From TrEMBL:
It comes from the Bacteria. This is GNAT family N-acetyltransferase. It comes from Pyxidicoccus fallax. Keywords: Acyltransferase, Transferase. The lineage of its organism: Bacteria, Pseudomonadati, Myxococcota, Myxococcia, Myxococcales. Coiled coil: none annotated. PANTHER family: AMINOALKYLPHOSPHONATE N-ACETYLTRANSFERASE-RELATED (PTHR43877:SF2), AMINOALKYLPHOSPHONATE N-ACETYLTRANSFERASE-RELATED-RELATED (PTHR43877).
Length: 172
């Protein structure tokens, strides 16, 4: 896959599970603290598990971003459902284009699958990032973690640009 500023994207593999989990945990702990209460962040992180990524019963497109040999972020899309399910960048790489590069590649997967809209539940800290990338605010939402803890988030979506390419079925 493409490279941008020394950044390389590739599909995630099973051996990445532990690193995906570590990136996810670190991003939430470092970047979501200001907008969520400490008990919300700790509950969120406690529920993450390495085996929760790349589940065989939930086929998804998961892309990882590497700078050199180091994994610096990942994102996940359910292209058939038109849902961006995850996008996380290691704290020390924030603001250097990793999230935007991953997002563009995941959007491209969704547009090529033919969905007209891509939706997501943005965490409150990430809402400006998605707005910057053309997503519009639909409504406030809640992501239930446990019976007691529900994370406030924002339901957003982006319409497939008229210029986006779509993979046509192969002609016989
Ligand atoms: C949100 C996140 C994925 C962004 O990734 P990133 O690599 O820092 O973002 P980039 O550097 O690619 O892009 C930042 C661009 O968005 C803009 N932006 C606006 N608000 C922003 C915000 N709150 N956070 C990050 N970027 C923001 C920047 O100005 C920048 O624009 P530019 O490229 O035109 O200068 C990353 O900060 C992250 O992992 N956050 C914690 C986890 C999280 O909340 N993930 C989303 C779950 S829904």
């Amino acid at each position: 896959m493409g490279a941008a500023g020394g950044l390389h994207l590739r599909p995630a593999r099973e051996s990445d599970r532990r690193t995906l989990w570590r990136i996810h945990t670190r991003a939430v702990e470092a970047l979501c603290v200001g907008v969520y209460a400490p008990h919300e962040v700790s509950t969120w992180v406690r529920l993450l598990r390495p085996e929760g990524y790349l589940r065989p019963d939930k086929p998804r497109t998961v892309l990882v971003a590497e700078r050199g040999r180091r994994m610096v972020g990942f994102g996940q899309v359910d292209a058939r459902a038109g849902e961006l399910e995850a996008l996380y960048v290691v704290p020390e790489e924030v603001g250097h284009g990793v999230g935007s590069t991953l997002l563009a590649a995941l959007e491209s997967v969704a547009w090529q699958a033919g969905v007209p809209l891509l939706g997501l539940d943005a965490s409150l800290n990430a809402e400006p990032f998605y707005r910057h990338h053309g997503y519009v605010w639909l409504h406030a939402a809640r992501r239930p973690l446990t019976a007691e803890v529900q994370l406030a988030c924002v339901r957003m979506q982006k319409r497939r640009p008229a210029t986006a390419s779509r993979l046509e079925p192969a002609t016989p």
